[in-house]
Structure formats: structure tokens, C-alpha cells
């Protein structure tokens, strides 16, 4: 009798361990063009969510639903939020980063009043938590709008709303506006330009007339911003750090030596 009980206990423990070890999280990303996957016609413009996906072990699925031009209002009205809400499971994660388009009063197709913006963000958090999942709330990344002294202008009037919501609702929070502003200011005017969409005429078939865009990142800028996000997750000792991919041992011999 005791032997049978011990066997059943060991079997249950083994099953529990197996379930823990095989747990696969979904990591949803809700945001705008600064986070989004791009159409080839837009390359080398790159959202930071693209390289971010590859930080995680393959069993954890990153679902990047961020889309160019979307505000909290249009992300909801177009059904993009429904795709998250309807597929959330206990233990999943949702990154929420909006603001670039919500504040655009001159673009009626996307403009969201401060009151609507706050209500939409709070709704996203409440829905996520009701499903047993967790939010990582973010202010929008900085624009590269330079002052005469080389510092960057603050161009996100809704950022303080996000900071207050994070305090009120007690969710994980990354102040991307402050972090990216400091990061690009420190590297200076010329080096920071190399991280944004600055292309001279006749250098890229997607932009034959060239482009000077201080809002959208290129591939280098996206990778570095994704790394800033990861550094903050580590600093916060966030559970997502436990889901990172394990490096192939044969690649470790190429470790940086300083």
C-alpha cells in the first residue's frame, strides 16, 4: 500500500516537473510603427520588436501585432486588441507601448484625446490581468529632435499619463522615452543619426530621393533599443528573463574580451 502511494506521489511530481519545464508563454506586443514588423518596401525601417523576438527560447512565441500608424483607439477599433484578448492565457505577457499617434491632433484618423488614451491603456491592463497574464507598460521611444545644445526635445505629452497609470495599477513599467533619450543624447548628433532613417538620395531603391526621418529606427537602432528593453527587464528581475534563449556552447568561444 505504502509502495503504491510512493509511486503515485513520484508520478505526480514527475508530471508537475514536466509541465513546468515545458511551459510555453506567449509574448504579445501591442504598439505602433516604432515596435512593428515592416513590409519589405519600408526597409531598412525596423521596429524594435523585430530583433526583440529572437531574445527568447523558441518554445516561447512572440506575437508582434504592433502596426504602423496605430493609436490605442485604432488598435482597438480595428480588432488588433481582440487578437490579443481572445488568445491570452494564464502566464502570458503583453507589452503595451503607444503615444506617437495618439497625440497627433492633425491626423483625425488616429488622434486620441488624453482621456481616451488613458482609458484605453487602463482597459488593456485590466483585460490582460483578468486573463491571468501580465503587462509590461512603456512610454513611447524618443524622437530624435535636436535642440541647439545637442540634447533631444521631449515630444510625447502623453508619456506622463503612462507613468501615472503604471503607479496607479502597479504594473511592470519601462520608461522608454527617458532611456532612449539618454542613450541617443550620449552618443551625439552624428552617431545617433546612424540609428534612424537617414538615407541619402540614390543609395536605396526604397528611397530614391533619400529620407531624413527622426522618428523611425533602422535595423541598427532597432537592435540597440531592443537591447535597452532587455537590460531593463534584467534590472527589474522580471520573469521574462527566465524565458531567454540559452546560447549554443560552441558560440561562447567568441565571447567579447574587452
What does this structure look like?
With 258 residues, the chain is α/β, with parallel strands linked by helices. It has one domain: Rossmann fold. It is built from eight helices and seven strands, in the order αβαβααβαβαβαββα. The chain has a five-stranded parallel beta sheet with strand order 2-1-3-4-5, sandwiched between helices. Strands 6-7 form a two-stranded antiparallel sheet. α5 runs parallel beside α6 and α7 packs antiparallel against α8. The termini are far apart.
Structure characteristics:
Rossmann fold; 258 residues; 38% helix; 5-stranded parallel beta sheet; two-stranded antiparallel ribbon; 7 strands; alpha/beta; 13% strand; disordered N terminus
Short structural description:
The chain has 258 residues and is an alpha/beta fold. It has a single domain, classed as Rossmann fold (3-Layer(aba) Sandwich).
Give the helix/strand layout.
Layout: H1 2-21, E1 26-31, H2 49-52, E2 61-64, H3 72-77, H4 80-85, E3 93-97, H5 114-130, E4 134-138, H6 159-169, E5 172-174, H7 176-193, E6 196-199, E7 211-217, H8 219-235
Parallel strand pairs: 1-2, 1-3, 3-4, 4-5
Antiparallel strand pairs: 6-7
Helix pairs in contact: 5-6, 7-8
Amino acid at each position: 500500500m505504502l509502495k503504491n502511494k510512493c509511486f503515485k506521489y513520484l508520478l505526480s511530481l514527475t508530471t508537475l516537473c514536466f509541465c513546468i519545464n515545458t511551459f510555453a508563454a506567449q509574448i504579445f506586443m501591442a504598439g505602433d510603427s516604432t515596435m512593428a514588423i515592416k513590409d519589405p518596401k519600408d526597409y531598412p525601417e525596423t521596429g524594435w520588436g523585430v530583433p526583440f523576438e529572437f531574445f527568447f527560447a523558441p518554445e516561447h512565441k512572440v506575437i508582434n501585432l504592433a502596426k504602423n500608424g496605430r493609436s490605442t483607439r485604432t488598435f482597438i477599433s480595428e480588432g488588433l486588441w481582440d487578437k490579443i484578448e481572445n488568445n491570452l492565457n494564464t502566464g502570458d505577457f503583453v507589452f503595451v507601448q503607444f503615444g506617437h499617434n495618439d497625440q497627433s491632433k492633425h491626423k483625425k484618423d488616429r488622434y486620441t484625446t488624453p482621456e481616451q488614451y488613458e482609458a484605453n491603456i487602463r482597459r488593456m491592463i485590466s483585460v490582460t490581468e483578468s486573463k491571468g497574464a501580465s503587462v509590461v507598460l512603456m512610454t513611447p521611444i524618443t524622437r530624435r529632435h535636436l535642440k541647439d545644445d545637442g540634447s533631444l526635445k521631449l515630444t510625447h505629452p502623453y508619456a506622463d499619463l503612462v507613468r501615472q497609470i503604471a503607479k496607479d495599477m502597479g504594473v511592470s513599467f519601462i520608461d522608454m522615452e527617458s532611456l532612449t533619450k539618454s542613450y541617443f543624447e550620449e552618443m551625439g548628433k552624428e552617431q545617433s543619426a546612424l540609428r534612424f532613417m537617414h538615407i541619402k538620395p540614390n543609395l536605396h531603391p526604397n528611397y530614391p530621393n533619400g529620407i531624413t526621418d527622426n522618428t523611425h529606427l533602422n535595423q541598427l537602432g532597432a537592435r540597440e533599443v531592443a537591447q535597452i528593453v532587455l537590460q531593463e527587464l534584467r534590472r527589474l528581475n522580471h520573469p521574462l528573463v527566465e524565458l531567454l534563449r540559452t546560447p549554443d556552447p560552441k558560440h561562447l568561444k567568441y565571447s567579447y574580451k574587452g
